[in-house]
Amino acid sequence: MSTTAPLAVTMGEPAGVGGELSLKAWQARHSGARPFFILDDPDRLAALARQLGVDVPVRSIGRPEEAAAAFPSALPVLPVPLAAAVTPGRPDVANAPATIEAIERAVQFAKAGTIAGIVTNPIQKKTLQDAGFRHPGHTEFLAELAGGVEVAMMLACPQLRVIPVTIHLSLADAVKSLDGEQIVRAGRIAARGLRDLFGIEHPRLAVAALNPHAGEQGAMGDEERLIIVPAIEALQREGIAARGPAPADTMFHAAARPAYDVALCMYHDQALIPIKTIDFAGGVNVTLGLPFVRTSPDHGTALDIAGTGRADPASLLAAIDMADDMARRRGH
Ligand SMILES: NC(=O)C1=CN([C@@H]2O[C@H](COP(=O)(O)OP(=O)(O)OC[C@H]3O[C@@H](n4cnc5c(N)ncnc54)[C@H](O)[C@@H]3O)[C@@H](O)[C@H]2O)C=CC1
Ligand SMILES: NCC(=O)COP(=O)(O)O
User: What atom in ligand 2 is closest to the CA of residue 141?
Assistant: First the structure.
């Protein structure tokens, strides 16, 4: 793999802000930066650039290997044609196959070793599911495309890293389905990922409680005693520095955060509310456990501002930078 192996950025939901963010990310490129290319429809990106008044020349490429030469003077686009014209803010199920194809082709390139990693733009999950997509999100889809590996979804910003143990479930289902084996699995993936991809030799895991006041000695729930404490002890027996259960309302403030490298949280919003509150613009979503690098902005499709030119590319830029760092650690 050459040191100029590019990153592949997927189109995400074409009616969302992904196209605008990709154009702005190319504009923010700096000399010496690792190149990236977009898996998207070149005509629609060129039209979007004109509509938004951003000066971004678009150049079609046939293979990832052509991205490095094109990147300094134009945004390289590996064509994935859309079936229907795009109306910003109004996802069309007819374009779901192209959105999915972009992800699948990125994974094929990653497996073939022609790219250094994948950065995904946000998808409109319900639109894909209406088209027959069986997965709750990228995380689960990528795990399957990688051959059924075990993964964890981590969100990271400079001040905090969080992993929701249960991911894309209703709160009721998350509570019902919580079990110790899931916590142990997430803890193992977290420890390995932080060591191998983030250079933290002995990662410290803070495991959140599920209930208020960590269950108040059973008066407010017994999941801590029955599920979470045994899982923490199992991780400790494996030599992983896990501690908890930590009451979730007091573990994310500034003075508490330096005591751990990642917070293992019991459900989606327990993890994502603190990080998006601390750093919505700079947060990055990373899938740990994959045999290739995958990052993403922390936010979604932002349909309410799509096509207005108001989308902030900071999180996509942070995702690109983090994918570059992780790829270097993997020797790309
Ligand atoms: N990795 C992915 O594919 C993700 C996909 N989603 C999907 O996105 C869709 C919309 O989700 P929401 O909960 O509405 O969250 P959202 O993040 O799309 O929007 C929440 C609010 O933040 C604003 N916002 C988001 N990104 C912004 C940006 N770059 N610049 C300026 N403002 C921005 C939006 O305008 C909106 O007001 C859902 O279908 C969800 O499943 C959500 C998160 C991640
Ligand atoms: N809220 C985070 C999120 O939905 C990320 O999902 P994924 O598509 O990256 O799995």
Answer: 10
pTM of the shown model:
0.96
Say which CATH number the domain at 250 has: 3.40.718.10
121 Cβ closer than 6 Å to some ligand 1 atom: no
Q: How do 117-120 and 7-10 pair as beta strands?
A: parallel
Q: Give pLDDT, residue 4.
A: 81
Cα separation of 178 and 222, whole Å? Answer: 12
Helix, strand, coil shares, percent, the chain, to 5: 45, 15, 40
Q: Which residues are annotated as a binding site?
A: 138-139, 168, 213, 268, 276, 285, 294
Would 283 be classed as within a structural domain? no
Closest CA to 65 of 83, 78, 80: 78
User: What is the tally of structural domains in the chain?
Assistant: 2
Looking at the domain assignment, is residue 284 inside a domain? no
Show the tokens assigned to 272: 């994502």
Residue 285 lies in a domain: no
The residue behind tokens 């403030």 is: 253
Are residues 125 and 195 both part of a single domain?
no
What value of ipTM does the predicted structure carry?
0.98
Task: Give me the domain span that covers residue 198.
Answer: 159-278
Asked if 17 and 46 count as a contact pair (C-beta separation under 8 A), the reply is no
